[in-house]
Amino acid sequence: MLEVQLQRHRYPNISGIHVAPPPPGGYHKLSVFPFTATTSRAPGCEKLGRWGGPVGVAWAKKIVANPSRFYVIIGTGRYPNGAIGGVLHRS
């Protein structure tokens, strides 16, 4: 489960999961599993194929199998290439 709470940067835009390593600060890579600003706030999980259809399912399985090979970036209007981010890990 990925849960992100933005306090000062309330309006995310370009966000998603990317293949590690992250690029240098201020640069952006294409995501393999993009998020949208309209992602549900409801508790619980979404269907695996909701984003990206079969391609999204394949990437999701890779992410679950080895999360440390991926990182997440949440962009905002002020910081479009990443207000916050980090490498994924198992909880």
Q: Which key features would you list for this structure?
A:
91 residues; alpha+beta; four-stranded antiparallel β-sheet; 1 helix; 4 strands
Quick check: average pLDDT? 76
Shape: globular
Q: Uncertain runs with pLDDT below 50, 5 residues or more? A: none
Separate helix tally: 1
Biggest sheet: strands, sense, closure? 4 strands, antiparallel
Description:
This protein has 91 residues and is of the alpha+beta class. The protein has a domain at 1-40 and 78-86. The chain has one helix and four strands, in the order ββαββ. It has one helix at residues 53-65, and strands at residues 12-19, 33-35, 70-76, 84-87. It starts with 11 loop residues before the first strand and ends with a strand. The mean pLDDT is 76.
What's the helix and strand layout?
Layout: E1 12-19, E2 33-35, H1 53-65, E3 70-76, E4 84-87
Antiparallel strand pairs: 1-2, 1-3, 3-4
What's a quick, concise take on this entry?
The chain has about 90 residues and is of the alpha+beta class. The chain has one helix and four strands. The mean pLDDT is about 75.
